[in-house]
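Justification of resources, computational component.

The compute hours requested in this renewal are based largely on the per-chain cost of generating structure records like the one below. Each record pairs the submitted sequence with a full structure-token output. That output is archived, and it is also reused by downstream analysis tasks.
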Amino acid sequence: MTKNKMNEFALLFRMDITTKEARPSPEQMEAYLTQWHDWTDNIAAQNKLASGNHFSVDGKVIKKDNMVTEGPYTANKMSVAGYIIIKAKDFDEAVNMAKACPILQGEGTSVEVRKIVAM
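The structure output for this chain reads:
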């Protein structure tokens, strides 16, 4: 009997991390973290959570000719706030897992699903 091969997918969490007013209050953050842990614990319980982390609001972007700019890369005030790596059989399963992400309750947030391809 062959096992179904699991693929790894990166879930990239985008939100406005540069505008102070867009950041959650400490009370909101506590509620969000509870929802976040419930969601990731559920994925881990299925043995489908590989790794993940949140990013600081600080960053630097290096461009051609070693041009360095301060702050994270943003587009329309949106930046990658963190990621997790999950295991799923295909894009459909990965997308369904991503749809339950509590970050999607916020204004202007998104989750990008990308399959990880070995080099």
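Residues 7-115 form a domain with the Alpha-Beta Plaits fold (CATH 3.30.70.1060). The chain has a mean pLDDT of 86.
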